[in-house]
Specification:
The chain is mainly alpha-helical and about 150 residues long. Helix content is about 65%, strand content about 5%. It has one domain. The protein has nine helices and two strands; from the N terminus they run E-E-H-H-H-H-H-H-H-H-H. Strands 1-2 form a two-stranded antiparallel sheet. The structure holds zinc ion.
Length: about 150
Amino acid sequence: MTRPRRFASATLDGHLYVELAYLGAVPPPSDDELSFVLAHELGHLKERHGERALADMGSSDAHIGELQTNNPRVRALAEQAMNATVKSSHETEADENALYAILKCGRSSKGMEEFFRRLEPLDKRSGSAGDSKVFDHPSAASRRAHLRKRLTP
Ligand SMILES: [Zn+2]
């Protein structure tokens, strides 16, 4: 199954995945950057964005339970559909969770800056026909600007 390019993801059954290509990128992500990315995905899990997306699609709790079984085909298809319904408000929420979490861990907000600097050229390359069409993600530039405002007291 083809998957859109991304650095990390969280699945309905609570697993976090980090793409090997991201870990091996040049320059490699710093601990601060990787912490931000992981905290962002954990933010999706904490806020139950996957379940909420499915609920928005009309899935009952029973259906959600079924998706959490071990049938990899069902799970992969459900996650693909779920990703297509990820809301930009969920991204903002996960970003805010991530910034809060990394600062609480004593990490630098530079990790967030590094991540969006890495993401920005990909945004420009994919344009409206790329990932942003599948994932209703706000642009890297607007995500960074939003979090910078959060940093300002
Ligand atoms: Zn996200």
